[in-house]
Prior knowledge:
By secondary structure, the chain is an alpha+beta fold. The protein has helices at 42-50, 73-81, 109-120, 137-147, 178-181; strands at 7-12, 16-23, 26-31, 55-63, 90-99, 102-103, 127-129, 132-133, 151-156, 169-173.
Amino acid sequence: MPDGARWTFEIKHDGFRFICRRDGDRVRVFSRNAKDWTDKVPLIVEAMLALPITSATIDGEGVVVDERGVTDFERLRTALAERGGSRAVFLYGFDLLALDGEDLRRHPWEIRRATLTRLMRKARPGVRLSEHLDGDGATIFEHACALGAEGIVAKSRDRPYRSGRCADWVKVKNPNAPAATRIMEW
């Protein structure tokens, strides 16, 4: 578990990783393996279109939550399988890669995060900010596990965005979460 002031922590939500791209009046929502989910997530599309911007690329997790507010992967799968998609699916945005024509990936996480936070203040319910926590990672992980979350992601505050796996984002998975035993079928 990474430790120290250089690190911040986010809940690892159990869903599909989505890259949401708005360019003018067009929104596209893609999974990590480039599957286009745009037609299945109308609430995300509407929220992206309502943002007071011209263009943006948000990295996040497409999710559906249960009655307790905990992400539920099986509910997400069911929602995405519905004809026409589902308004239950929303995005927890955790990074901002571009805004109004400016590529933000070279900036440290702290700058991207502050910009995303300001943008999310104006967002509709289809796109929400994935909150971060500062403090002791082990304690945050224990609490995330107790809530039934998939785990946490430790992020280095001073690093640029990198695609794929890297040492700047460290996932620590809850061994008791459904995701720990699920075989990805999609």
